[in-house]
């Protein structure tokens, strides 16, 4: 701002007094002097005009018409989203089988339309979007939801994420049931959080109770939770999150379009019908 004001002052000074920079021997200025005067005038006009524009534009954008800033931001975001969706489309088309292989799936395993959701069982927004996805599955039979467990809250996330992935080795249906139970019930209490050194143990104990209720063999489940399949799926989740620039949950890919955040039922349905 200071430099802009200085340039404006210089421009005005040149316009008013620039002619004094050149000495004139006679009454009539020479052609060179006249050209020099015109050049100085032109330079002064450019400096003044540029400075005024630079001073006025921020004032116009912040005080006169602040909505233009929002429009610019929205336009940039739309362009960025378009580029991201283009990259997602290309990858999902070629790698759907790998993305689905070890992940828990809700709905028909062979449904025509797929929703991928990066989620965390301890995330309240993920629980909200789970309810919207459950509503979609109850009202449509052409959709499956592939659950990519993005374990980001340490011991509150790790045990449940491993359990639902391992559960698929026993039964895709029981795995989906366990996902729903963990999303709709509390698997830890505020008292559990008081002793952070034992929270992982308490969470796993509560998860195992739900797993047994879902009809799973908990001894086998515990063994599979530390196995190769679970490790591979968690690595796949992290790798895809990095590829798609996913930094939080929930994050949905519906068809070939990305939706960060807990979007509502209507928006999910509209995306499926595109």
Question: How would you describe the overall organization of this protein?
Answer:
The two termini are 49 Å apart. This protein has ten helices and five strands. A five-stranded mixed sheet has the order 1-3-2-4-5, with helices on both faces. The chain folds into two domains: 2-59; 79-272, Glutaredoxin, CATH 3.40.30. The longest helix is centred in the N-terminal third of the chain and has 35 residues, at 67-101. Strand 4 (251-254) and strand 5 (257-260) form a beta hairpin. With 274 residues, the chain is α+β, with helices and mostly antiparallel strands. The chain has helices at residues 2-17, 31-64, 67-101, 124-139, 155-170, 172-184, 199-213, 218-225, 228-243, 265-272, and strands at residues 105-107, 113-119, 143-149, 251-254, 257-260. The mean pLDDT is 86.
